[in-house]
Amino acid sequence: MSSPLTHSVRTRSRPAWPAALGLPLALALAAPLLLTPPAPVQAQALSPAPQLTPDTAQDFVDVRVPELLAEHGAPGLAVSIVADGEPLAWAAHGVADLADGTPMDAESHAFPAASIAKSFTATAVLQLAEQGEVDLHEDVNAYLPEELRVPDTHPDEPVTLHHLLTHTPGFDERTGMDDPEDPAGQRDLEEFLRDNTPERIFPPGRYAAYSNYGTGLAGFVVQEVSGLPFEEYVERNVFAPLGMNGTEFGQLHELADQHDLVTGHGPDGAPAALVHIPLVPAGAAVTTTGDMARFMTALLNDGELDGERVLGAESVAMMLDRQFEHHPDATAMGYGTYEWRTGPPRGVGHGGDLDGIHTGYLVLPELDAGVFVAVNGDDTDPEAGASLLHDLRFAVLHAFADEFGPADARAGSETAPEADPGDDLSAYSGSYVTTRRAVEGTTRIITLFDNLAVRDAGDGTLRVRGALIPRERWLPVGDGVFVGQDSGERLAFTVEDNRATAVYLDANPTNGYDRTSALASPGLHLITVVVALLVLLTGTAHLRRPRGARGARGAARVTAAVSASLTALACLVAVGLVAYAVTDVNRLRDWVFGDSVVLTLPLALAVPLALATAGFAVTAWVRGWWGGGRWGRIRRVHYSLLPLAALAVVAVGVQYGLVWPQG
């Protein structure tokens, strides 16, 4: 099914590097977020971009980068630029540790790599594929021991390495950290994979859903097939040949003894703790600006550097090319990479996030250029850091691409999109929830906030509401693609049988939103909770002492009122804690991954309280009175609504893993 308009406008999206190993709520729940708008499409030809030379590159890192650092207020950053097969410039600004004021040094300091390590893991997998040791399209279970095999949830649709490298295996969200100070509680890669087998919620290859587990499993295949520990294999076959002497996989708190690691910082300047990451191939690594320059140069040189080859040209092409696309006109996934923009010139790379650390690299193959940036803290400036999709790291990457490789506006149509009030866009209307979601535990809370509500505005445009979506008119530009009237951001819908089944933000190809039923709509759930809380707040009316109520009957009347009030209080506390956690993502992460009962205990208490209140309501209807006086019909109806309202809140809580104990 196509949109009514036949002309199309191609806008160029800026990158939305997804959360790497930290809680995905970091993107979904920090509010309110606005997507970084792409450069507007111009009808005229663009002015020629300045040539990328050692002088212009050094000027960029010495002048523009510190300007951005000052605007965003992070502690420090380091950056390196490559082009034409060699490093052009590198620099560091700010401090490596706020506590002691150590200046950042681009040559000596190392950084937690976070999820850019996924590109290293993909390189290792592709090496084995070149050698015929693995087949990217073979059932991955052929390379796994029985206890780690992927369940046959979708018969005749096996998960393959191709799916793992493109985040399309269909797994639910499985990620977790361990306390580095508790050796007994630390899990290695095999233990985590064995004990956290994910649910297969989608057939493989249907949707992209960013999966740290999937990359971890791909890394374990490298270990099983090569016969070497994953860390050792990558050191021997990727890092050593490329001369990446400062890059290493391992636990960060252990690597800190061997590398001069910068300190990560939160928005308040407090140092961020180094966590134990069981899924090592997904992001437990350190690197340097110089090493990332060598890695980018090798990618741009068909896998070879200084006479050493780590990948063949065909494998590098697979790594950087489109391997999974949800829409032909939108950004797509590569192997261990994803598109930043479709171009021309195309931008491909990866980003990563840990507490207080943000990294990213971007290569522009058509320009034979690349840039890497690492930031050791969160933005502190309210304006510059208002959106997680436009932090300091993104600002540097944006500025580099806009300066030296601006998208060619002439590739788009010169015709601006227009709305036709006669168009019927009801096929797109519905509720959509993130494809990157969990099916058990409190992590399910992510879908309560990371969702989209799409409606036909009736004037030839769409209305779209969501935490990551600008509130504006969305104009159809053809083939299920809509463009934001003000932001220039794009939504691309997957349409089957004349009905949209999923939608993707062009700024983030790593996961999308699939259609959900009306009853499963987070919007309906939120409305249900609000209405139920309003009903529960009226329950205190039953606390007033009845005239003539004495002795046991009066006490029973008070007990009934107290039961209703405690039920309301438990529900109000539960919702209040969730609302508070949404404003403090770090606190929410601690509660979700710290085995805390803070989010689940209130509704656990609400269940018996609601049942007790329901018992009092039944007694009131059977006897018609309570505590020395008769209840009128209105009062009995009102009291009966209280346990029903509480159970409605509990039912919504069950949907999002907020009722203890968890299954």
Automatic annotation (TrEMBL):
Pfam families: Beta-lactamase. Residues 65-384 form the Beta-lactamase-related domain. It comes from the Bacteria. Gene3D superfamilies: DD-peptidase/beta-lactamase superfamily. The chain crosses the membrane at residues 523-543, 555-583, 603-626, 638-658. The keyword Electron transport does not apply. Residues 408-427 are annotated as: Disordered. InterPro entries: AmpC-like, Beta-lactam-related, Beta-lactam/transpept-like. Keywords: Membrane, Transmembrane, Transmembrane helix. PANTHER family: BETA-LACTAMASE-RELATED DOMAIN-CONTAINING PROTEIN, D-ALANYL-D-ALANINE-CARBOXYPEPTIDASE/ENDOPEPTIDASE AMPH. This is Beta-lactamase family protein.
